[in-house]
Specification:
862 residues, alpha+beta, 7-stranded mixed beta sheet, 30 strands
């Protein structure tokens, strides 16, 4: 998406006009204009010059972001420049100048008449002089606020009248009529008809002409100030970017602008300093505060080899780092770009308002003319009819319609960014809250994605520490993922592994070595059973751990069993709370995993999901999402490359921030803290934003539906009428009210479960039926809803040794299912076998070769 800065827009009608003009340019696929940020996002292959020319022909200005300020490099500087509040200071100057002359004008026009305030002797009884001074003061106020006239009439000439056109017509009509009355007053005074001259004083609307402009300027300034506040979150992110970095060059410390840092440079960060660019720690250790990027308040320990991110703060130690990503490639710049891009996109809810805005101003002008004509036909004098027509012009507010959606989206995006939840588009922020089903990838999303030691059961006179020390000594030489879980726990407890000799790793069985002349062994129940006696209570414990989805590993020393250790990919601390939060909002939660059904069910029971689908192949996730989309809108949450197709297919894709770049690119929302609890928070925030949009749209439509007839005089029979000045004040406040309502989102507590209202959009029975249907299709069973007969398939059981955990099962499954003729394979490390479904004959030599190449022993068919 190419982004542009658009100047000269004042309301939703301008926004619609620019979009229409750019969409007509050949090569433009889509265009979204934001009145809030005065920006435009264009997709397609159209030439930038043609796009800018189209905007200029429509009566506005445009420039490509980053081109008009070439000395600034990096997306952070560009974004800061784009978000700078240029409107409020200019409007403040105009308002102060207008007020000075308006006060004088009101003194001359009403002060002496209503409050008997004294006038200079020259003006006493001189109606012409009083009228002339009013005209001069009104003209000065009009010159000060000439932008309304230049913009309004320019837009009218281009056939696209906007809010400025309404203001210019209203104020201009008041001034023109008053000038005509002034000439009539001159004629009356020439003919010495002083009574008529005095009566014509009441026909003057010079103060209305000036008051309309001043009140609209007040509203514009309040609106500009409030709009500026909607981007506070993004501005605070931009301010985090450090301006300088300390580089180490030829052994000397050199302070340079951060723009001069290149990948590969060595930079130094002292305690209390911000990290200038993304990098990797070469030496040193420290605790780094990453709350600016992730929202996580607890500092993260950083050691040699760990990644550090720009704008995070070094809290304690001294870090020597090598730059890896600089400029626009840093994590901070990407976040800024992501939030900025989201502001440049358009939410679906804005489309209805855009359609109304496109015809709103022409319709108001017609209503104003009709009002003038009707009152004249009904016998009212021209002054009354004109006042009603002017009231219609100045009370109508297309701005409220145009701002209703983008201000809420911008504030919602900002609140999400402050809490580590990044919405890539306005549509993703809106659609997320409409979902009825959440599909979770298990590994790395619900669970930590790496095995950890969960239980130690000592026996034979050993205690926990002794068992763990023996296990660490043996597993220290192994590269198996389960071995790392054991050694990591040893490091955590401060256990020092002893030196062993004659180490052997026996694929499919376990490990062997010698320690102080005694033979050590570690492995599965089946392997250790062949070496030492296993008490019944240990066997039962091993079976219990297996039922819970854990992998039991037994250890022996000589001819004595030392104990049992259980290792598992455990659930993240907050996953259960997050899933409960999603279910409390009425969403159906289903977990996908490649694990066998027993392990999957154990994890699903702990996590509290509504359903689990086990034995899931990577390419099957997309099909599952498609099936669930038949029931309603679907959120897919994942972190791996194999999740990318499903993330793209889902109505809303959420990627875990610690996941792969492919998954993050494919997703609509990125959870920077890699916490599932942020998924529930994102749904709550989306629903709150959508409610705010509906409130804003209701107010915008309601205001115009009620106020336009009031201004036209439709309620005169009820004793209700409207002065043009009151209409101008109402118009000014309408936009301010819409923006202020959106700012309330800053107070929304997105982590408060009570804020998530229950909204169940998917029928439970239909959901469970879909889950069963998916399972049946995966298992090759007959779908009850279809009249199809399944082909007969051959099923054989293969004896395989060497599998010790769920990861081993996945390797065997992948190796077998890669063979032509194999439909499905279901390995079990507990039974040392694999049940394989064949659609064609496969030679036993081919099967044996595939299993051996995967690192396991094939023992024939059962």
């Amino acid at each position: 998406m190419e982004q542009y800065i658009v100047t000269g827009m004042s309301c939703a009608a301008c926004q619609a006009r620019v979009e229409k003009a750019v969409n007509a340019v050949p090569g433009v696929e889509s265009c979204a204009v934001s009145l809030l940020t005065n920006s435009m996002g264009v997709e397609g292959n159209a030439d930038a010059r043609e796009i800018i020319e189209a905007v200029e022909k429509a009566g506005y200005g445009a420039s490509k972001k980053g081109l008009d300020n070439k000395e600034k490099k990096g997306s952070a500087a560009e974004a800061e420049d784009a978000l700078r509040d240029r409107e409020t200071p200019e409007l403040r100057k105009r308002l102060l100048a207008s007020l000075c002359f308006l006060i004088l004008l009101m003194y001359f026009s009403m002060g002496h008449m209503m409050f008997n305030l004294p006038l200079p002797a020259f003006f006493n009884g001189n109606h012409l002089a009083v009228s002339l001074i009013q005209m001069i003061l009104a003209a000065i106020v009009m010159i000060i606020n000439r932008k309304f006239f230049t913009s309004g009439f320019n837009s009218l000439l281009h056939g696209a009248p906007n809010m400025d056109t309404l203001v210019a017509l209203g104020s201009g009509a008041s001034f023109t009529w008053s000038t005509i009355v002034l000439f009539l007053m001159t004629d009356a005074m020439k003919s010495s008809d002083m009574a008529r001259a005095a009566s014509l004083m009441h026909e003057l609307y010079f103060e209305s002409a000036a008051m309309i402009l001043t009140l609209i300027t007040v509203g514009k300034m309040l609106e500009a100030y409030s709009k500026g506040r909607t981007t506070d979150a993004l501005k605070s992110l931009i301010k985090l970017a450090p301006e300088t970095a300390v580089l180490l060059r030829d052994g000397t410390e050199v302070t340079v602008p951060v723009d001069e840092v290149k990948p590969g440079d060595i930079f130094l960060v002292r305690p209390g300093e911000s990290i200038p660019v993304d990098g990797i720690v070469e030496s040193g250790s420290s605790a780094v505060d990453e709350s600016a990027l992730t929202g996580e308040s607890i500092p993260v320990d950083k050691l040699k080899g760990d990644m550090v991110s720009a704008a995070t703060v070094n809290k304690s130690g001294f870090l020597n780092c090598r730059a890896t990503r600089v400029g626009e490639d840093t994590g901070l710049s990407k976040i800024i770009q992501m939030v900025s891009d989201a502001a440049a996109t358009k939410a679906p809810a804005a489309k209805a308002a855009d359609r109304v805005s496109a015809v709103f101003v022409p319709a108001v002008i017609i209503i104003s003319l009709v009002t003038l004509a009707v009152w004249l036909l009904l016998g009212k004098d021209f002054s009354y009819a004109l006042a009603s027509g002017i009231s219609v012009l100045v009370i109508s507010c297309p701005c409220a319609l145009g701002l209703a959606t983008p201000v809420a989206i911008m504030v919602g995006n900002g609140v999400g960014a402050k809490n580590g939840i990044l919405f890539k588009t306005a549509a993703s922020l809106e659609e997320c809250g409409k979902a009825g089903i959440v599909v979770l990838d298990k590994t790395g999303t619900v669970t930590k994605g790496m095995p950890v030691l969960t239980d130690i059961v000592p026996c034979g006179g050993f205690d926990e520490e002794a068992v763990l020390k023996l296990a660490c000594s043996l597993e220290n030489r192994s590269k198996h993922p389960l071995a790392k879980a054991v050694t990591d726990e040893g490091e955590k407890r401060g256990i020092q592994a002893e030196e062993i000799s004659d180490f052997k790793a026996l694929p499919g069985n376990g490990l062997m070595a010698k320690l102080n002349g005694k033979e050590l062994a570690g492995g599965s129940l089946a392997y250790i059973s062949g070496m030492v006696f296993i008490p019944e209570d240990i066997r039962e414990k091993a079976d219990e751990f297996s039922a819970q989805g854990k992998t039991p590993i037994l250890f022996s020393e000589g001819e004595k069993l030392c104990g049992l250790i259980a290792v598992a990919d455990v659930i993240k601390e907050d996953s259960t709370e997050a899933i409960d939060g999603l279910k409390a909002m009425g969403l159906k939660v289903v977990m996908l995993t490649g694990d066998n059904e027993r392990t999957a069910k154990a994890i699903a029971d702990k996590a509290g999901v509504d359903a689990v689908i086990a034995d899931m192949l990577p390419d099957g996730k997309e099909k599952v999402v498609r099936r669930f989309k038949e029931l309603g809108k679907v959120i897919m949450i994942g972190d791996g490359i194999n999740d990318a197709p499903a993330l793209t297919t889902a109505d809303t894709g959420m990627a875990i921030g610690a996941g792969t770049d492919v998954a993050i690119d494919a997703a609509d929302i990125v959870l920077m803290k890699s916490s599932l609890i942020d998924a529930a928070a994102a749904v709550r925030l989306s629903r709150a934003t959508l409610r705010n949009i509906h409130e804003n749209l209701f107010w915008a439509f309601f205001y115009n539906v009620i106020c336009i007839p009031l201004a036209a005089g439709a309620y005169v029979g009820l004793g209700l009428s409207l002065n043009p000045m009151v209409g101008a004040a109402a118009m000014s406040l309408s936009s301010f009210c819409v923006v202020s309502n959106a700012l309330r989102l800053n107070l929304f507590k997105l982590y408060d479960a009570k804020k998530g209202r229950k909204n169940e959009t998917v029928d439970t029975a239909a959901f469970l039926e879909a889950v069963e249907d998916i399972r049946n299709n995966m298992q090759g069973k007959t779908n009850k809803k279809q009249d199809k007969t399944e082909e007969r398939k051959m099923t054989k059981t293969l004896k395989i040794e060497g599998m010790m955990c769920g990861n081993c099962e996945k390797h065997v499954k992948k190796a077998l299912e890669a063979l032509e003729g194999v439909t499905e394979a279901k390995p079990s490390h507990e039974k040392n076998e694999a049940v394989v479904e064949f659609s064609a004959e496969v030679s036993e030599d081919t099967i044996s070769a595939a299993i051996t190449e995967a690192g396991y022993d094939y023992k024939g068919m059962a």
